[in-house]
Amino acid sequence: MLSAFYPDERAESVYEIDFEAWYRKGFRGLEFDVDNTLVPHGAPADARSVELFRKLRGIGFRTCLISNNRRTRVEPFAEALGTEFISMANKPFTGGYRRGCAVLGTDERHTLFIGDQLFTDVWGARKAGIYTILVNPINPKEEIQIVLKRKLEKKVLDRYERDRRG
């Protein structure tokens, strides 16, 4: 039952993922969470995130931000990165992820989702049939409701690691 929340893969940081390898494997669309995945919660796009998205376009990827935040948060962030976006995505429901695929012109089998939360990012993307990469949150200072979710996530991730080791 807990396996519904397991990511397909884990990475320390979005900035350490070998995106060229994923492109060689046939993936063409990338969907990203914003807060604590690309930048600390509430921060604007920074030089590192802008450079990442420039690199991703150079590889040949199409990109889209999938966020539960309002348009006023996501749109300026997306403009700074030169990417598409879906705001108010209602993760973990699957509609935002699927709208992202439509915007990207990809299907679920050729799209990756990268995010920092199990119960929204990973669970929703997996339900939508999208391969997931869970990254560690950039900043441990988070809103209280996320801190509480992290305690539950830790239990699930401990089980995930035990199951992976066999």
List the helices and strands and how they pair.
Elements: E1 9-11, H1 19-24, E2 29-32, H2 47-59, E3 62-66, H3 71-81, E4 84-86, H4 95-104, E5 111-115, H5 118-127, E6 131-135, H6 144-165
Parallel strand pairs: 1-6, 2-3, 2-5, 3-4, 5-6
Provide the descriptors you would attach to this structure in a database record.
166 residues; 6-stranded parallel sheet; 6 strands; 43% helix; 15% strand
How would you describe the overall organization of this protein?
The chain is α/β, with parallel strands linked by helices and 166 residues long. Helices cover 43% and strands 15% of the residues. The chain contains six helices and six strands, in the order E-H-E-H-E-H-E-H-E-H-E-H. Strands 1-6-5-2-3-4 form a six-stranded parallel β-sheet, sandwiched between helices. The longest helix is centred in the C-terminal third of the chain and has 22 residues, at 144-165. The chain is globular, with a radius of gyration of 15 Å. The model has no long low-confidence stretch (mean pLDDT 93).
H and E string: EHEHEHEHEHEH
- How much is the average pLDDT? 93
Oligomeric state of this protein: single chain
Strand content: 15-25%
In short:
This protein has 166 residues and is of the alpha/beta class. Helices cover 43% and strands 15% of the residues.
